[in-house]
Queue: 4 jobs
Job 1
Amino acid sequence: MSRQNYVFTSESVSEGHPDKVCDRISDAVLDAFLSEEPEARVAAETFATTNRVVIGGEVGLSDKERLHEYMGRIEDIARACIRDIGYEQDKFHHATCEITNLLHEQSAHIAQGVDSAADKDEGAGDQGIMFGFATRETPELMPAPIHYAHAILRRLAEVRKNGTEPTLRPDAKSQLSVRYENGVPVGVSSIVLSTQHADESQTSDDIRAIVEPYIRDVLPDGWISPDTEWWVNPTGTFVIGGPDGDAGLTGRKIIVDTYGGAAPHGGGAFSGKDPTKVDRSAAYVARYLAKNVVASGMAEKCTIQLSYAIGVSKPLSIYCDTFGTGDVADHAIEKAIGQVIDLTPRGIREHLQLNRPIYARTAAYGHFGRAPEADGGFSWEKTDLVDALKAAV
């Protein structure tokens, strides 16, 4: 029997965190190529440090001349990302940092695995295992600790960018320790918030006075009590931030991007990868399936695992775990999933309409638990598979 009374902790990082700067640039490069050609191939990695950004990896368009033309846009794309995030520091400024573009044409050997599967259907771009998860802890069917850790940083970014809090700066991290009773989140035992700020004279108390009202607004009523521990800028001054304070790299925040450690992760990062890469698309569809299982009332929480092999179109396995909360047997859900959706890479992309420039917005504050958008962004958060699943079990 699972524990019912415990404390679980998750962290989030802001769009100005060095790794998230890199995720944003990589996904903006992806969006640019998908805007040119929906079937574009992109595997873009970004590295950032003091006054420098390096972008490398593989890209592919059917028109080779257009591919070389697009290469000339990469520097402008990176600078636009840094500007939107808000970096205008002496040693990391959108207008003056050095941008190096090392992107090159996609390997023909990788392309053949995707394009020429033995059954003439598109094969997976790599082997791997992908997980999706959903739980009734929040209306968004996300684990509460990561959901609210994200929400705090999104709110602080809003008031920084709209000028309400002009002394806040882009780099920030949050961490929430959430208290559970009878398996339900009921409060916060500790709150950790470190945020970059403008002036060395600002103390930890000064920063807490700025951020505390926004944190209280974001968390559910009653979750903060006199016993809640606050750790705001616990090391004191945090003026030097972003890639000037610490190097960043695409794909290093995979737990922040997913479920905050409350569910398994297959190990593959998302950002910078086009949706033929099942690291991304299959993780999205696994979340979609888990969310629809929970939304259907079949279970209170659900993990879905999918596995793939390079060049093979269909998943090698489908696994479901409802942790004893299900009204339907796990094996019946597994069978139903295979009946209601095509889980080949192309089937996933077509069902969720992933061949669109919708990825830069995913690069911070989590890929899951976000509202589906009119242009197709976060399509994997829809619950439009509920009726089909119910009919199939």
Note: The CA atoms of residues 156 and 162 lie 10 Å apart.
Job 2
Amino acid sequence: MIRTKTDDTAFTGLEAAIVLIAFVVVAAVFSYVVLGAGFFTTQKAQETVYSAVAQSTSNIQMTGQVYGLASGAGGTQINEIQFSIGLAPGAPSMDLSLMNIVYSRPDLATAPIILSYGGTTSSRTQFSSKIGDVAAPSLAAQQQVLIDFKVVGVPKNKVMNFEIRPSVGASLPFTRATPPDIIGTTVLY
């Protein structure tokens, strides 16, 4: 019987190389998936931060005084509120038809009144926004819009709370009071 000596060291080395290459390929695919998920998560986090900054900053600012208008000659109550608003520097244009104004008086036991956009007409449930005598359903940079709405008669020395709620961005709350003497056009302090 003839014995042949087999030398399989080269074959074992080839098997080890194939296994090593398979591990490297699997590790490369796995690292690509992990990096892709990391980039996606980072992008979503960045979008969330930018969105939060846009919504948390107030784009609206008061420009001037808040006025109370008394009806009739020698009126003793404020029946209409007027004030001007503008955009903060660098703020994008705003759709005023999507904005709400919340009006309340602490001395009354009624729920706050939420006013919506009403074009050029104002009432106790709608506000008007005008530039001059023209309705302004939107507000752009460098513009000032006159906001006007009617209220139930407010006598002297009463506090009123207002909150302007735009569709995007932070709301702008402020408080004003009627003075001891009410005239036709009264500056609320």
Note: The first strand starts at residue 60 and ends at 70.
Job 3
Amino acid sequence: MLELAESYALLNRSGKTQRDLLRGRTLINLFFENSTRTRTSFELAGKRLGADVINMSVQTSSVAKGETLLDTAATLNAMHCDLLVVRHNLSGAPHLLSQKVDASVINAGDGTHEHPTQALLDALTIRRHLGRLEGLLVVICGDVTHSRVARSDILLLTTMGARVRVCGPATLIPPEIERMGVEVFTDVRPALEGADVVMMLRLQKERMAHGLVPSAREYFRFWGLDAAKLAWAQPHALVMHPGPINRGIEIDSAVADDIEHSVIHEQVEMGVAVRMAVLDILSRRGPGNE
């Protein structure tokens, strides 16, 4: 999948498209949570492959009037769409939909569970810059407890042979996360020593109870990434962030915009290529796949 995504990245940079691959296929973006990067990149990916793309606005749909997820699934199934991209605030919602619709279902983020295509684009970005994933040391820092990105990245990167460390306040580290094969730190300095990749996470205040973190100023002092902390990592270390960025809370603007280390904008670019690859592969396999 990463090899195919790489070919789409090169194709996109050349300005060319493959408008015939998904011609006659229908892709529906069903987002129960707000999104800019993910929804737009799936829309671009679908259109660049020639699909008919429909963005369903949940706020103005029957869901807002009380329709259940299963009723929504029955409605979508009657429309005979081919590809269904789902983001939902409840973990497991895309899996449930995949059992109720004939379309191929793609998880665009479910609750605090997973965000598979984000992990794929992160892996592609890393590989493009460092040439490999195996043997690299990746540090994921911040609100790990509420991050579906962290979970998917841990699964993918450890599978591909990378070493992964997670770091953050003890209140934002999930219990027993060591079982996922990661090292756990609450102190940034030892966590960052020798890191090839530093991936910062957004503080998801909308998902957390009060009192889990100190003030924003104190959080940045201890766990926010600035130039002084980045110096503890490898000289070639990449700086990543799934977005949206809270500047001055989890990352300093100077680091986020540092062209020598930051690949945050390239992550967005690779998101389109990865999602084109996902749509391509699922369209070959036919409906009924998640």
Note: Strands lie at 26-31, 52-57, 83-88, 104-110, 137-141, 163-167, 183-185, 197-200, 238-240.
Job 4
Amino acid sequence: MNKAPLRTKPKTGPAQVADFAPESMIELRGVIKRFSNAAGEFTVLKGVDLTINRGEFVSIVGKSGSGKSTLLNMITGIDHPTDGQVVVNATDIYTGVTESQRSKWRGKNLGIVFQFFQLLPMLTLLENVMLPMDYVDLYDFDERPARAMELLTLVGLEQFANKLPVLVSTGQQQLAAIARAMACDPPLLVADEPTGNLDTRSADKIIQLFEGFVAQGKTIVMVTHDPSLTSRTNRNIIISDGELINETVSRALPKLRHRHMLEFTRIVEERVYQPNETILSRDQHVDHFFMIRKGEVEVVLQDEKNQETVVSRLKPGEFFGEIELLRGGKSIANARRQQRPRGSVDSSARRFSARDQ
């Protein structure tokens, strides 16, 4: 009896996600990561929700052991979440995807810059940059050297193209690694401490390159410990003990320790006020400490004839509410949402009154 031919399962890649916002590049939805060892189970990421939009330059910071490298590994597909969903460029990169499929997808859709470069020592800089094109079979074979040389020229290394990595400086090795990361023209670049082993001048050149890529529409996510670099990114995301700190909290209260920011994050609640709506009235007991996420707030004084004087205009990242401490736990002025398009104000659920001091 003839046997029926074996049917192989058709090869599929990562699936497109229908409810992915078109302006988003990265969405992490309830991502949990647990590790198990001889000492037991340890949760590194605790239900992380994060959206990064296209064209943003984002820095991720956190103390050692906070989970930032694990978070980066979720985005790049290097590690697997225990639970939750990771969507990158409208693609679910984990559900029903093999390691080989994810690797091919990664080669075409994102570039990775490592702290220690990870250049292959037996290949020239030009060959290192060509390697991703060979792996994913992108560009015609004869076009790849010219494409690699174009990228080395972009980072200022054209004269070192035929040198081995050991024959150039550490700063030049990192520039070559960036050229390699951009070899397949990915929409997303992820960098793990890209300037950690470089001098100030070399680090500045790296960030200038990143800024140029962002100007071209690329999205960059960078882990760094250097506060001088976080000031040059569009957003600064702080992770503490496996949880993301509310960005309004970190902007409004940057001097707090991360663990204190995390305490605020856990109790913060969002309230939306319409344009010209009163948030606080004079002589009202102040129940909340307000931090502005979007929009602007006017602080207004009224005289005996109810004539108003705007004494301050507060913008996103600023806060108010502590003025109650100046007089018996009551507000000394009115605060209202400015007459602008709709915005919102984040406010802590904790009370800050004179009685608490």
Note: The longest helix spans residues 200-215.
